[in-house]
Amino acid sequence: MAQQSDPRQNSMLAALPLDEYQRLAPLLEPVELKLGASLAESGETMRYVYFPTDAIVSLLCVMEDGDSTEIAVVGAEGVVGISLFMGGETTPSRAIVQSAGSAYRLSGPLVKAEFYRAGPLQDLLLRYTQALITQMAQTAVCNRHHSLDQQLCRWLLLSLDRLPTNELRMTQELIANMLGVRREGVTESAGKLQRAGLIAYHRGRITILDRPGLEARVCECYAIVKKEYDRLMTYRRPPRDRGIG
Amino acid sequence: MAQQSDPRQNSMLAALPLDEYQRLAPLLEPVELKLGASLAESGETMRYVYFPTDAIVSLLCVMEDGDSTEIAVVGAEGVVGISLFMGGETTPSRAIVQSAGSAYRLSGPLVKAEFYRAGPLQDLLLRYTQALITQMAQTAVCNRHHSLDQQLCRWLLLSLDRLPTNELRMTQELIANMLGVRREGVTESAGKLQRAGLIAYHRGRITILDRPGLEARVCECYAIVKKEYDRLMTYRRPPRDRGIG
DNA sequence: AACGCTATGTTCGTCAGCGCACAGTGAGTG
DNA sequence: CACTCACTGTGCGCTGACGAACATAGCGTT
């Protein structure tokens, strides 16, 4: 309760012009996101969109037999709950807190009202959605074509980018759930990284020792996604009447 | 040139209120989409959005080494080029005509202008985008968890849904490219379906003989995606000021 | 200090899909 | 009408991931 994070630690909120932000700020409700908490269940109507400030949320696609796969990860660069402003209200996927932390939330009706003002927030939300689409597409290819070793590196780097520290709390079991693979497979791949001196693993705590080393092992997917986020979230939209860009 | 398809064969255009459609109709430019033609290349700015009337377009994610994977397929139910109204202008994926046919296109500036009217078209485009996201997410899980046999069934059904006939022109080589697998693998899986009497394969022509048979073999992914399209594209948006839905 | 639970490490047989090489076979072309 | 090329079918050995079973080890609890 005591210390609340600054909403503008979230990149979306930070990117708003000051007047827009000031109008929005009183509507933002701080929430603590606990590890493993569910922000969205398949098919259930979402009540809020969440702007993480330092939490990380995984979007998972869960199947009938319980197998799941992470299709995207959201941190302080984005927002959870795009189906609210996209018009569908629900999605067939789950949103689970992968790393505990803080967020600010905005109720569905409010975010829709803001979205329909067609101002900077709409623009940001749509661009972010496109970046998310890229992440999902790249995840699909990566699942198909790359080794578990590479995918683990990708996953570690994606998480690392969204964390203030170089330590993440996450068991191999959970990582396996995210990646949609066996726990033993993660043990093996993580073992390789550990023996190579890139990470130190200890009972649910992973410390990244050599980030460049991870970047050297990761597949292209990581860079593609990251580059697309940078492009989409820093580019300033030209005025709407400017014609062909 | 002679016979042009009715633009309203495209579900998006058909779903527009008549007055909206009539305003839009003169702006729509008929185009023939030839097999293998590219509507979008990775990183290149798109000039048009395309509303297929009877063509099918594959969205592919291509990697450095040339390997590719289809991340979604678009037919008369949708539109190609969402990055134009989402704000990114480009995507890191390719759009390739998978089945020749007709489409209507709308230039980037025009579609943006229409989108920003915040009318029924915007609503449709956003809902469609969400459905597309679902398709991509489900493709990612399917790539991870399901056998090639099942994925081939899914692919055939997705194509079939977007075709007026029960015959599709597509070599096993091309299907393999779409699914991101080996050609031999497709030969083997298609052989099983053929021996089971579900399809007849003959030099680039696939005839579906037993659709229910395919549906019995396909994984859940097909139904999930289809259901979500139905839900999103038939649901009518409540008025914007109605509060919590 | 003993216990129990959770997390990690290891092994082994199995199998789907890969990469490669090559054999048929139809369809269109000169 | 023969040729060629594209498409399909098949047979290897190989490998990465799977599933199951089990061993070890840290950490908190009592």
What does this structure look like?
2 copies of one chain form a homodimer. Chain A has helices at 11-14, 18-24, 82-86, 108-115, 120-145, 148-161, 172-179, 183-195, 211-217, 220-234; strands spanning 29-33, 38-40, 48-52, 56-62, 68-74, 94-99, 101-107, 167-169, 199-202, 205-208. Chain A is α+β, with helices and mostly antiparallel strands and 245 residues long. Chain A has 2 domains: 7-118, Jelly Rolls (Sandwich), CATH 2.60.120; 144-225, Winged helix-like DNA-binding domain superfamily/Winged helix DNA-binding domain (Arc Repressor Mutant, subunit A), CATH 1.10.10. In chain A, the strands form 3 sheets. In chain A, strands 2-6-4-5 form a 4-stranded antiparallel β-sheet. A 3-stranded antiparallel β-sheet of chain A has the order 1-7-3. In chain A, strand 4 and strand 5 form a beta hairpin. In chain A, helix 5 (120-145) runs antiparallel to helix 10 and helix 7 (172-179) crosses helix 8. Chain A is globular and about 50 Å long. Chains A and B meet through strand 5, helix 3, helix 4, helix 5 and helix 10 of A and strand 5, helix 3, helix 4, helix 5 and helix 10 of B. Chain A binds a DNA duplex (30 and 30 nucleotides) through helix 8.
